[in-house]
Structure formats: C-alpha cells, structure tokens
Amino acid sequence: MTVKLLDIAKKVVACEVDPRMVAELTKRIQGTPQYSKLSIRVGDILKSEMPYFDVCVANVPYQISSPLVFKLLLHRPFFRCAVLMFQLEFAQRLVAKPGDPLYCRLSVNTQLLSKVEHVMKVGKNNFKPPPKVESAVVRIEPYNPPPPINFQEWDGLLRICFVRKNKTLGASFRSKAVLELLSKNYKTYCALNNMMDESDEESIKDKVIKLLTDSDFVEKRSRTLDIDDFLKLLKLFNDNNIHFS
C-alpha cells in the first residue's frame, strides 16, 4: 500500500512498528524516484507523536483500532480525512445509529467529533492467508472546529450511560458506584468554587433522579438516545453542578 501511495502523493510518512517490514519497504524503493518522497518512523504509533499530515491511510491492526481512532480525532492541527480499514464489526460500531444493536459509546464519540461513513466491505479472501474475520473501509472527516464541549466531561457521562446501555438512565444513575463518583465530584466542585457543601450520597441521588425525572430522561435508555439528547443531558447536569470529571 505504501508503494502505491508513493506513486500519487507528494510525500508519505510511514509509521511501522515491525523493523522487518521497514527493511522490505526500503529494499523495494531504494534507487527509485519514490525513495526521496518517503519518510519512515519506526515505533508504536500510539506511543509516538504524530507528524503533520493531510490525509491518513491505514490498514489498522485490529487490537489498536479504538485508541488509534481517538488519537486521530484529538490530533492537532486538523487533518482533512482518514481512510482506514478495520474489522467489520468495529467499522459497523463507528457508523451505528441510535437503536442499532452495535450502537455504543464509540459510535457516539466518533460521530460527535467527525463525519464517518462506510466505504466498502473487504472479504477475508482478499488477504493471504485469509483472516478469520471480515473487514471494512471507513472514511473519517473530523469536524473543524470541534463542538464546544469539555470532552472529559462528555466522555465521563457516556461511560456511565453505556455501562449497561439497555438499562434505563434512572437505573444507571442509582448505581452506588456512580453516586459515589458524582458525590466526590460535587464535593471537589464546591471546594474549588468556594461553595458550601452539605451533600451526601443520598442527597446527590435525590437531586440526580429529580433532574432526570423532570426532563423526561429517567425512563429512557442510552441505546435509543442521539448526540443531541446526550448534549442536553450533559448541560442539564452541569447547569446543576453535577460533573463527570
């Protein structure tokens, strides 16, 4: 794939963790016009600083799919697009809509930060040797500028909502672990903002359930909510000093 990219691109920065692949690529293009257009970075892309780039093209190792997607989406400066091949089910999660069986936190986060679309399915018989799973190519275009939200707060909310996406929000937010977290965050918020804190877990629980009930969210389930619903939910909590990071 890198050799084909060199035929059409002005410059290619290749990131590869396997030195044997680097040696093979170097051998193929050494002494050709493409050699001067290639820069190779050897190492784990998740642990390395990404170079400036306009377009990312990759056949992604399936075990790093999720962290790589978010590293790309949080990369600055913004790039134009990424065309990536993933395991089919992972690709389907990226583009899943509310109500789909594969709709999850990954779906919501990716679609909040980018336009993502399925390009094509790639059968396992296109590989030698054939893997055990099917693959798919997706195109990701990050939104520039990104939505004006605190991503840590946003992701903290989604983690709670999607632990059990089929449960009602009321049930999810009655969890002891969730109430402990929200109570701790509330105490921290009060301390940082010189506010009197007379709360305990029970009062935080009452406050949270009242907010959910009054806004008609208490019986709703995360698997059916869209991005606008989650944005409304986050604003509702934050406006009432309930925080998730």
UniProtKB/TrEMBL annotation:
Query: Quick check: keyword Endoplasmic reticulum in the entry?
Result: no
Could you tell me the keywords of this UniProt record?
Methyltransferase, RNA-binding, rRNA processing, S-adenosyl-L-methionine, Transferase
Q: Which SUPFAM superfamilies match?
A: S-adenosyl-L-methionine-dependent methyltransferases
Give the Pfam families listed for this entry. RrnaAD
Q: Which GO terms describe its cellular component?
A: nucleolus
- Binding-site list for S-adenosyl-L-methionine: 1, 16, 44, 59
Q: Which superkingdom?
A: Eukaryota
EC number(s) from the headed UniProt entry: 2.1.1.-
Would the keyword S-adenosyl-L-methionine turn up in this protein's UniProt record?
yes
Q: What's a Gene Ontology MF term here?
A: RNA binding
Q: Which residues form the Ribosomal RNA adenine methylase transferase N-terminal domain?
A: 1-144
User: What family does the Swiss-Prot or TrEMBL record give for this protein?
Assistant: Belongs to the class I-like SAM-binding methyltransferase superfamily. rRNA adenine N(6)-methyltransferase family.
The record, for PANTHER family, names:
DIMETHYLADENOSINE TRANSFERASE, DIMETHYLADENOSINE TRANSFERASE-RELATED
Under what name is this protein listed? rRNA adenine N(6)-methyltransferase
| Organism of origin | Sphaeroforma arctica JP610
